[in-house]
Every structure is written in structure tokens, then in C-alpha cells.
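User: Predict the full complex structure for these chains.
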Amino acid sequence: MPELPEVETTRRGIAPLVSGHRVVQIVVRDGRLRWPVAADIDAHLRGQCLLDVDRRGKYLLFRFADGCLIVHLGMSGSLRVLDAATPPNPHDHIDLVFDHGQALRLRDPRRFGAVIWSADAASHALLRDLGPEPLGPAFTADYLATRARGRRRAIKDFLMDAHTVVGVGNIYASEALFAAGIRPTRAAGRLTRREWTRVVEAIRTTLNEAIEAGGTTLRDFSQADGRPGYFRHALKVYARAGLPCLTCGRIIAARTIGQRASFYCPGCQH
DNA sequence: CTCCGATCCTGATGGC
DNA sequence: TGCCATCAGGATCGGA
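Assistant: Here is the predicted structure of the three-chain assembly.
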């Protein structure tokens, strides 16, 4: 599910509702996520005041004075803030209950998500080797060209690797490459300088527009208040195989790249 | 190093 | 209606 726009939408939705409040209880109904939720999580969180909610790539970072709760939403995770007494759904695995009676509730049907306490998140193995933020200053055509030199890997696969750049998943890799006019199957090491510039620009624009729309809801994702994300209506190639390109009218093609469904327009992308 | 496939898990969907 | 195969927004791991 969630790529950078969905995680950022979640962050913006929940941060004002829970920041500055104290955790009074942690309810772990099912701790079997990507990694089992540690038994001592309660000791770290209970009584602590949540200072702020940050994001690094697709990770949400809940900052406390002594450390950080790292949350990843995996493929199907979502977070909502609601009244702590609201009856849970079978896939509502974890609640953080705050001092104002509201709970931050993690729902994750497929349980690919993660909830991990870390005293020093930046140096945690999950975050340490991540690539630059796509909306930050370190994400440049220079950087990508240097990093891609000699690589034969498909550019879509290359862009979806969090060591290259964080936050770009299956939907936005396809959409950004359409916006850049580049076929997803191209070898990363074969792009020209001009093309890398277009890739950087396309990723930034696509992600920013998706954030504006509250992300993309295909099935599981919802914003913090339960509404879906509306960027689905703006998708130009993703999940549009067999339909005419909105720009040139050619039929959108589908291919599997790196085990993931990929979509492109044979007329607009070269 | 680099690349590829298998893998974790549940639910929705479509074909027969 | 039922059953089975396939596919889903992610990311790690191991082997070639």
C-alpha cells in the first residue's frame, strides 16, 4: 500500500491529533508483524509524552524524549486516530492510547508492517542505509547518474530500491516514468543526463501532486480521518493496461519488472 | 558488488 | 455456489 505520499498524508493527519499528549496505555492485540513486536515496548512508551511525528522514506518516526517508535505500514497498513473505546476491527493490531482518550490505531491485514522501538532511530539498521528523500536537496540528476553508472538493472526497479531513493513504490515509479517519458525497462546505466533531470523533476512533481490529493487509495489505504486518498483518479498508466493513453491514445502496456506489475505507454515513453 | 527469485500474510477477484 | 489460482501499494534475505 503506502508509498511516500500515503505515509506523508498519514503523518500530517495524525501528528496534530496526538503530538504533545502522553501515552497512558499500549494495547497489542496481535504483535505478529514483519518482526514480532517487542514485549518491552510498553516499558518504553507508557507515561512518555509524544513530542512529534516525523517521516523518513516510508517510515513514520514517533519521537519521545528517550527514543523513537519506528512504524512501517508495509503493504496494507493504515493508522487512524479515534476514540479509544471504538471497537476494534479484527485487523486492528495495536493501539497507543493517549491521555485525552484518543487512540492511535494500527490496522494491517497482511501484517507486513513493523513497529519497533529504537533509542537512536537514525542509526538503526532499517534507516541507516536509506537513500535521499526525493523531495529533499540531495536528490539530484547528478546523484542518480553517478549511482546508476554501469548498472543494467531496469530503471523502474532501480528507483524502487530504497537505497537509491526512498518512498518511490510501484505506483509512483510507473507514474513518474510516464511523466518523464522513459520506459520502465530501460537499463538504469543507459539514461542520458537530460533524462535523469526529467526523472528527478517527474518524481518530485508526481509525489507532490499525490500528497496534495491525500495519496492513492486502491483498497486498504485511508487517511487518518478514514477518508480515502484521491490521487487514484489522477493515475495515467498504473492499472490502466489495455486502455488508451490519455495523452496520445496508444494502448497502455503492462509488463512484469522485478516481480512487480509495471505499466507504460509505448507512444509516450522511450 | 549486482541482480534475481522466494518469502512473509490475508483478502479480493475472476475463471471454470 | 464452490474451489482454485492469481494478484495486491513492501522490503529483506539468500544464492547465483
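Residues 1-3, 6, 34, 58, 72-76, 110, 112-113, 126, 160-162, 169-172, 215-221, 238, 260-261 of chain A lie near DNA strand C (CB under 10 Å from a C1').
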